[in-house]
Automatic annotation (TrEMBL), chain A:
Keywords: Cell membrane, Membrane, NAD, Oxidoreductase, Quinone, Translocase, Transmembrane, Transmembrane helix, Ubiquinone
Organism taxonomic ancestry: Bacteria, Pseudomonadati, Pseudomonadota, Alphaproteobacteria, Acetobacterales
Task of the protein: NDH-1 shuttles electrons from NADH, via FMN and iron-sulfur (Fe-S) centers, to quinones in the respiratory chain. The immediate electron acceptor for the enzyme in this species is believed to be ubiquinone. Couples the redox reaction to proton translocation (for every two electrons transferred, four hydrogen ions are translocated across the cytoplasmic membrane), and thus conserves the redox energy in a proton gradient. This subunit may bind ubiquinone.
A Pfam family hit: NADHdh
The organism's place on the tree of life at top rank: Bacteria
Subunit structure: NDH-1 is composed of 14 different subunits. Subunits NuoA, H, J, K, L, M, N constitute the membrane sector of the complex.
Protein name: NADH-quinone oxidoreductase subunit H
UniProtKB/TrEMBL annotation, chain B:
Reaction(s) catalysed (UniProt annotation): a quinone + NADH + 5 H(+)(in) = a quinol + NAD(+) + 4 H(+)(out)
Entry's family note: Belongs to the complex I subunit 6 family.
Recorded topology in the membrane: Multi-pass membrane protein
Chain's role: NDH-1 shuttles electrons from NADH, via FMN and iron-sulfur (Fe-S) centers, to quinones in the respiratory chain. Couples the redox reaction to proton translocation (for every two electrons transferred, four hydrogen ions are translocated across the cytoplasmic membrane), and thus conserves the redox energy in a proton gradient.
Superkingdom, natural source: Bacteria
Subcellular location: Cell membrane
Keywords on record: Cell membrane, Membrane, NAD, Oxidoreductase, Quinone, Transmembrane, Transmembrane helix
UniProt keyword Membrane, yes or no: yes
Biased composition (Basic and acidic residues): 238-247
GO cellular-component term (any): plasma membrane
InterPro entries: NADH_UbQ/plastoQ_OxRdtase_su6, Nuo/plastoQ_OxRdtase_6_NuoJ
Lineage start: Bacteria, Pseudomonadati, Pseudomonadota, Alphaproteobacteria, Acetobacterales
Uppermost EC category: translocase
Name the UniProt record assigns to this protein: NADH-quinone oxidoreductase subunit J
Length: 341, 254
């Protein structure tokens, strides 16, 4: 049996499909419940009850929403580019799923444990802008187009600081492999020595996923709903799920780069009893909670303030920190000699 | 076997999409096909085992350069009829240039020969056991560090040149000065007044402008803000001291 899965072509294909399903099914369930969790958490913060009708504590609300979305009519505006209009939500959604191939959930547990895992994540997340941009253009609507342009400028800007923060982390690790990055945090999680970068990365992640307070691409007070103003039914649902899957992905990246991935806080007895994947899930859930907390707390930024923050604050700060990190590691002789395969 | 199939899939899609880049009617479609071409080129790099180059190609070209292309092309106002007009007029020129290029390519390929002593040319061999990312770093940052840094300088100069060319003063715009906003206190903008019954404090209803303009003061009248401070309303105690009548309009410009 093991021979069939590991050494024959068909076996490997089946194995890969099974591995992908093992990642995607929990992820999609998580996305469905994140939409519910967001409504519940925000309700609690605003002294409301939130959805509480479908099932105990409203747990069936996620499925009710899904059924509602699937049974609605898909409206394609006249003058829209039909293919690109339908392609954009699929792109957004599938990119958010694809990135999970390299996320390790335990030592060596990743669908694809590749050497350039971090770069893969960066590449996939930088592709996310196309879904938004294409949707904005293909809708043939002014509001959607403006939303798409805003999103493109915003995501490209914050990618720069995300990239520089990742470089600082990589300097301390000496490898682009996500597994190695987590293992390098055995003694101390990077969120402690690199605390400012942790904060910058988290805020940039908010901007990268177009979440409040940086949700200008869909600013409903000025752009109706921004780039997905013309979308309905399943296409809208895919955008919606894609946004939440991206939140999961960014939380996963924060957990792996700064919060020690699957590692327990201290490597002693009561903490090591809990298996690694549960630690990772706990950290991701914590980040997601902060995502929602921020949304319930902060008002939306103005667009020029957003650009100022990205280019004039985060970019110089992360650049200086990168140089400082390199200098510190050189001076103390802690620079890792990575690169061996 | 599998590698060959993957290679031919990537290569076919790459060539087809490259053809579509030049033949697509809609310029936005052209850019999208260009992105598809980049993506397949990255796939070919992966097949060749150069995963670092593949990822960098996607991050730099697809993630940044092509986004800006798309950005610009989407905002272009392209008139297709006008383009077709030009096509007929300039077709002979285009054909001539194409023919010259084709002839040069044919000449070059007919005399193409790999140098005999290529193996004796000094080149860097990656240390065994290094990943290709690390090997690339070794080569760039140790053997060719001077060239690498010069490339960086050239790019920096190009960047500064682009900024100098496009930067212009825009005196009409409103600009936010965060530091000055933080310096602003209630004393700058607020004054407590006792308003006599049945009378306003000033003719304009008691509005006061800040003593300093927070917009650009160098251009008088740019945003209804004059360079000199706007006349202030008479503070409350003075209003009471003077008679009524006159003070009703006391806040007006003298």
């Amino acid at each position: 049996m093991a021979h069939f899965f590991l050494h024959t072509l068909i076996g490997q294909v089946i194995l890969t499909v099974l591995e992908a399903l093992a990642v995607l099914v929990p992820l999609l369930l998580g996305v469905a419940y994140l939409t519910l969790a967001e409504r519940k958490v925000m309700a609690a913060m605003q002294l409301r009850k939130g959805p509480n009708v479908n099932g105990p504590f409203g747990v069936l609300q996620a499925f009710a929403d899904a059924i509602k979305m699937m049974t609605k009519e898909t409206v394609i505006p006249s003058g829209a580019n039909r293919f690109l209009f339908l392609f954009a939500p699929f792109l957004t959604f599938s990119l958010a799923m694809t990135a999970w191939a390299v996320i390790p959930t335990n030592d060596g547990w990743a669908v694809a444990d590749i050497n350039v895992g971090v770069l893969y994540l960066l590449a996939i997340s930088s592709l996310g802008v196309y879904g938004v941009l294409i949707a904005g253009w293909a809708s043939n609507s002014k509001y959607a187009f403006l939303g798409g342009l805003r999103a493109a400028a915003q995501m490209v800007s914050y990618e720069v600081s995300i990239g520089l923060v990742i470089v600082s982390v990589l300097l301390a690790v000496g490898s682009l492999n996500l597994n190695d990055i987590v293992l390098a945090q055995r003694h101390v999680w990077f969120c402690l020595p690199m605390f400012p970068m942790f904060i910058i990365f988290f805020i940039s992640a908010l901007a990268e996923t177009n979440r409040a307070p940086f949700d200008l691409p869909e600013g409903e007070s000025e752009l109706v709903a921004g780039f997905f103003v013309e979308y309905s039914a399943l296409a809208f649902g895919l955008f919606f799920l894609g946004e939440y899957a991206n939140m999961f992905l960014m939380s996963g990246m924060v957990s792996i780069l700064f919060l020690g991935g699957w590692l327990p806080p201290i490597g002693i007895a009561p903490f090591t009893w809990i298996p690694g994947p549960l630690w990772l899930i706990a950290k991701i859930l914590f980040c997601l909670f902060v995502f929602i907390w921020v949304r319930a707390t902060f008002p939306r930024y103005r667009y020029d303030q957003l650009m100022r923050l990205g280019w004039k604050v985060f970019l110089p700060l992360s650049l200086v920190w990168m140089v400082l990190t390199a200098g510190f590691l050189m001076a103390t002789g802690l620079l890792p000699q990575g690169g061996a395969s | 076997m599998m590698t060959q199939i993957v290679f031919y899939v990537f290569a076919t899609v790459l060539i087809l999409s490259a053809g579509m880049v030049v033949s697509a009617r809609n310029p936005v479609h052209s850019v999208l096909f260009l992105i598809l071409a980049f993506f397949n080129a990255a796939g070919l790099f992966l097949v060749a085992g150069a995963e670092f180059l593949a990822m960098i190609l996607v991050i730099v070209y697809v993630g940044a350069v092509a986004v800006l292309f798309l950005f610009v092309v989407m905002m272009l106002d392209v008139r297709f009829a006008q383009m077709r007009e030009g096509l007929q007029r300039y077709a002979p020129f285009g054909a001539a240039v194409g023919l010259v290029l084709l002839a040069e390519l044919a000449l070059a390929f007919s005399h193409w020969r790999v140098a005999q002593d290529i193996a004796s040319v000094p080149h860097v061999v990656a240390a065994p056991g290094r990943t290709n990312t690390a090997a690339l770093g070794d080569v760039l940052y140790t053997h060719y560090v001077f060239l690498f840094e010069s490339c960086g300088l050239v790019l920096l100069v190009a960047m500064i040149g682009a900024i100098v060319l496009t930067l212009r003063e825009r005196p009409m715009g409103r600009r936010q000065n965060i530091e000055r906003q933080h310096e602003r206190t209630a004393a700058d903008t607020l004054a407590m007044m006792t308003v006599p019954l049945g009378q306003g404090v000033t003719a304009n209803g008691g509005f006061r402008r800040p003593e300093r303009s927070y917009y650009i003061a160098s251009v008088p009248g740019s945003y209804g803000v004059t360079a000199e401070p706007v006349p202030q309303a008479t503070p409350a105690h003075e209003t009471q001291r003077g008679g009524h009548g006159a003070d009703n309009h006391g806040g007006l410009a003298q």
